[in-house]
Amino acid sequence: MPTYDYVCDGCGHAFELFQAMTDAVKKTCPKCGKKKLRRLIGAGGAIMFKGSGFYKTDYRSDSYKKAAEADAPAKSADGGKSSGDKKSSGEKSGGGSGGKD
Fold it and tell me: Which of 6, 23, 77, 95 could form a disulfide with 19 if both were Cys (CB 3.0 to 4.6 A apart)?
C-alpha cells in the first residue's frame, strides 16, 4: 500500500497517509475539520533490494538456465576464436579488386 501526501488548504496542515490505492481520496482535514484537504502528487516510491543475493539471475528457472547454456557459443581451445575469425597475413582487409578483373 502506498503512502500519500495530503495538505489542507484551510489550515495548512500537511501529513502523510498510508492507504490502499482503491481507497477514496480523503477530503476532511483531521486537524481543523474543514473539507479543504487536497492530495498532492508525489514522486512515489521504488522497490529497493538491500543486502546480498539480489541479482537478476538468482531466481531463474532450471529450464531457462539450460536454454541459456545451449544458446551460448562453445569455447574452443584457441580462446574462443573460430578459424573464420583469423585472417592470414597476406590477406587485405579492403573490398577492392583482388587481382581478377
Answer: 23
